């Protein structure tokens, strides 16, 4: 089925001018960027987005990192977009990511791992609504 998923190009990647190279990997995989904006999250906003991880030992570090510099938030659309995006991203830890994936090619560490992608249809819906209004989604 055609799905939409929420993607974030993280500060380690925007800082290194990798937005275009990462978007090329999405587009080459058949994912369409139907919404996109560059924003600088406040610590409160980053904390709210990742609230599901609030009891994890890395939460503070994750929130500080995500609010450190601008990110690019985007909605990707395509056949099986949620799973396809996770394939294109590669494993969370770049040391375990397959060749050719975004994290293998660009990520610095498990924390500074260049991209975020929704993990399931329900979270995709919530995460898209966190950043975008319906009017901003141009299919
Ligand atoms: P993401 O897909 O954005 O969802 C939660 C993030 O937490 C994850 O990617 C990682 O960047 C981060 N994360 C997971 N494990 C660790 C860890 N051990 N140390 C620091 N950050 C982590």
From TrEMBL:
Domain spans labelled Nucleoside diphosphate kinase-like: 2-139
Q: Gene3D superfamilies from the entry?
A: Nucleoside diphosphate kinase-like domain
Which SMART domains does the record match to this protein? NDK
Q: Which cofactor does it need?
A: Mg(2+)
CDD domains noted in UniProt: NDPk_I
* SUPFAM superfamilies listed in its UniProt record: Nucleoside diphosphate kinase, NDK
Q: Which residues act catalytically here? A: 116 (pros-phosphohistidine intermediate)
User: Where the protein is mainly located, per its record?
Assistant: cytoplasm
Q: Name one Pfam family in it.
A: NDK
Could you say which protein family the record assigns here? Belongs to the NDK family.
The UniProt function text for this chain reads: Major role in the synthesis of nucleoside triphosphates other than ATP. The ATP gamma phosphate is transferred to the NDP beta phosphate via a ping-pong mechanism, using a phosphorylated active-site intermediate.
Q: Which HAMAP family match?
A: NDP_kinase
Q: What is this protein called?
A: Nucleoside diphosphate kinase
Q: Which organism is it from?
A: Paracoccus zhejiangensis
């Amino acid at each position: 089925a055609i799905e939409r998923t929420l993607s974030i190009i993280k500060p380690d990647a925007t800082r290194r001018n990798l937005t275009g190279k990462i978007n090329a990997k999405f587009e080459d995989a058949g994912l369409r960027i139907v919404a996109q904006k560059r924003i600088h999250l406040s610590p409160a906003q980053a904390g709210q987005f990742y609230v599901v991880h609030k009891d994890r030992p890395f939460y503070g570090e994750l929130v500080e990192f995500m609010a450190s510099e601008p990110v690019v938030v985007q909605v990707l659309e395509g056949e099986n977009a949620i799973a396809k995006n996770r394939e294109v991203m590669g494993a969370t830890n770049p040391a375990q990511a397959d060749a050719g994936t975004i994290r293998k090619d660009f990520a610095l560490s498990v924390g500074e791992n260049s991209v975020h992608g929704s993990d399931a249809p329900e979270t995709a819906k919530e995460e898209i609504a966190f950043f975008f209004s319906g009017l901003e989604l141009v299919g």
